[in-house]
Every structure is written in C-alpha cells, then in structure tokens.
Amino acid sequence: MKSQPEQNPLIENKSVDYVPPAERHGQARSLFTLWFCTNIAPLAVVTGAISTQTFHLNILSALTAIVAGHLFGGLFLALTSAQGPQVGIPQMVQSRAQFGRYGSLLVIAFTTVIYLGFFISNISLSGKVINNVIPALPLPSATLVGAITATLIGVVGYHFIHRINKVGAWVMGAALLLGLALMLGQPFPADFWQRGSFSLAGWFATFCIGAVWQISFSPYTSDYSRYLPASVGIARPFLCTYLGACCGTILAFVFGMVAVNMVPDGSDAMAAVRQATGWLGPVLMVLFLINIICHNSMNLYGAVLSLITAVQTFRPSWTPGARVRILFSTLVLVASVLVALAASENFVAFFFNLILALIAVLIPWSVINLLDFYLINKQRYDINAIFSADGGRYGRLNGRALLVYFGGIVVQIPFVENAFFTGPYAKLIPGADISWVISLVVTAIAYPLCVRRHALPALSGSQA
Fold first, then answer.
1. Is the Cβ–Cβ distance between 2 and 20 less than 8 Å?
2. pTM, 2 dp
3. Residues with Cβ < 8 Å from 101, sequence gap 6 or more?
C-alpha cells in the first residue's frame, strides 16, 4: 500500500488508497450538512407521500411511522459512517477485511450495479426536469447536460462534494421549511386530519420504507468521512451523520405527505407540492433539479471508486490517482448516457425495479460490516493486510463470512415481494416487505457464531 503526494489542489488526487494521518483534516459536523442535503430529494418527497396515498394512514400515524423508520435505519447508516475516520479507506475496500481480498468482489459487484443503476435513472430524471424547465432544450441535450454536470462534481471529488452540500443544506432546508410553513398556513381541507386511519400493516410498511431507505446508503458512507482525523472518534461522526440523515429525510418525507393531503386530488406528489406551495413551487422545482444533480455526483463517485477497487484487487501494487478516477468517470458517463438515451420507458422502469430488488443484498452486508468492525475486531483493522496481495491476515477468501452473507440473502426469498418475484410468505403483513427484517435477525445471530476475530498486535501507523 502506498500513498501519493498531493498533485492537484483542485481535483482530489486519491481514489481507493489509504488517507494517512498527515493528510486528514476537517470536522465531523461536515457530515451533518452532507447527509442532510443528500436526503432532501424529489424521490424522498414522493416516497413520503406513499404513507397516506398507498397505505392510507392518517397524518399522525404516518408521521410516527416515518420518524420511527428513519431513526431506526439511521443507526446503520451512522455507524457505517463513523468507521471512515478510523480506517481511512473507502467502504468497498474495507470489505476485504470481512470477506477476504477476492471474496469482497461479490459485494463490490452488487454495489457497483446499484450505483450505476441509480446514476442512469437520475440522469434520465434530471434530463426530463431540465427539458420541462427549458422546453427549447431537446430531451437528449438536457439529459447530457444533467449527466455532465453530475460527473464534473464527482470528478472534482470528496472536498467539493462536501462544500456543495454544505451550501445546499442551508438552501434546501430553508426552502422546504418555508414551503411547509406556506402549506400549513393555508386553510386545511375539511378531511385533512380525518383522511385515512391507523392500521398496523400500513404503519409497519411505512416504517420499513424509512428504515431500508437509510440502510441503502451504507455502502458509501465512509467514502465521505475517511479524510477526517481519527481523533474525532466514533461518537461525533456517528451523531452528525445520524442527525443529518434522519432530519433531512424526515423533513422531505413529511413535506411530501403534507402536500398530497393539502391538495384535493393529490395523486401526483410533485404536482401537489407545486400547487400547495404557491409562488414557491417553481423555485422548489429548480432546487430539486440541482439536488438531483448533486446527489447523482455521489452515485458516480461511489461507482467509480467501486470499479477501481475491483480492478485494483487484481493489481495489488497499483495505486491509482486522479487521472485514473477521471478516466473511469468519463467511461461511466459515456456508457450511462448511451443507456439512458437508448432505453425505452419500459426498460428504465425494469432497470429501476432491478436495482430496488438488488438492495436486498445490502442488508446482510450491512449487518456483517457493522458486527465485524465494532464487535469482532473492536474498531481496528490492519490496513497493510487489506492492501496486501495475499490478503494478509484476512486472506483471499473468507468462506465463513461469505456463507453467512449468502444465508442472509437466501432467508429473504420466502418473504420477498418485488417486480420479479413474490415469495409464499410475502403477504404475512400486507403491504410491508419484511424480508429485510428476517435477514437482519438471521445474519446478526449467525455472523458472531461463525466468524472469528483476526487478532492484531500492538497498534501501529499501519493499523486503524
């Protein structure tokens, strides 16, 4: 493992290599603004509306389910984020400590597909929004503009992503709070509080959506905390990430829920937002567009780091820097734009459903990752071994960890309900996908029983 000297003050010069203590900087509070802004997105607004639209909960029931779901799922996200300052490497590289050097490729492959899927979906969405805002700009050109802008942000890298989200957190947060005040300042529809009712199935389904929303971010959280000094500890990064992610997403979910209940025919959440917020509506649409592009830069950044990690697995002595990251970003940009422009609406919907189905593979990974770091290895990894050609103490393949991982995926199958498959017990709780809960419990019990700790000698500069 080697570390390159800084070559370019504008573009991040690292990719998947270790960030040494001398290059660490920043404060944990930057994680609050990053995760707060990231989660104030149109998809979060639309998803929040589902609680009353689809599950027919009343306002108070929906509110408690949204809050509880995100507070629970946010624990996984924040615990993963807190690993970054202690290890100084991207999340997917760290997976070698759990699954072995080559064993981690399976998780990396799944994660890369998910990153790319969301990147392609979001550039399609941003293209449509740009085309609506500027009708004179053809849809293909609008799609290209959105894709290139997101790619440029991702290429500049870690520091710029943090800076742009620091500004965005204040702008987006203020805009949504103002919009919420405008909506609540109007006369309520007669059935605003009475519309819908409490149901255990609807409440739990909404809770599950919130929890899985947070957990799905886990594969790239430490990517955005690895430059922080190890001295910030665990508690501060955890708290800042937890509050940022939960507050931002809860605000967006509640915003969407209130909007559809303020409009008599609130079948389309974004149309309801525009109508219910009056003069602020068009401004919000523009801000949401900017948010989509900024968020999509994180999908690109994560996809590129994962792809480089996969290649570097077979080239242990290779330490790629900024040029390699720019090359990979360009390749991802070109391929993604071609797919987005060539794909039909049906294909895009199919691909998006595939990505949502693949999120099931992240649940057992998240549990294994957290148990291994916090419980099994006591917050310490041998960084030299992680980059070693033979995997060092972690080996090339950790069969036991992979067995638990596959088990965590398989136990979900009878309870799964998605666009491709419905298990025999999928309707155990109508409307709620409980497969992730089964996987979480089974994996949490099996992993400590099957996997042993890799004992480390006294702490040194090559360990974290």
1. no
2. 0.91
3. 313, 388, 389, 390, 391, 394, 395, 396, 397
